[in-house]
Amino acid sequence: MELKYRVHEFAKDFKEKINADRIVYVDAGKDVSKIAIVGGSGKGYLAEAKEYGCDTFITGEMPYNCEHEAKELGINLICGGHYFTENV
Fold this sequence. Notes:
Elements: H1 7-18, E1 24-26, E2 35-41, H2 46-51, E3 56-61, H3 65-73, E4 76-79, H4 82-86
Parallel strand pairs: 2-3, 3-4
Antiparallel strand pairs: 1-4
């Protein structure tokens, strides 16, 4: 039996692990299995993460339009805050 880890479950656990006040996530309908992480501001790496076959991209902060870009690319996006993703 293969375990499925949905982005909302992963985002909740991630928030607790980094002790963030809040996080923002985009659910692109993909199970979380291959993750790209860029602490701080990773706005320039979303498409590259998709090119490398990642289904989930974690960073600190992204401009609002990147939420739409993530949906269009079909990649989950988790923004955990600039400070919290750099001070794990």
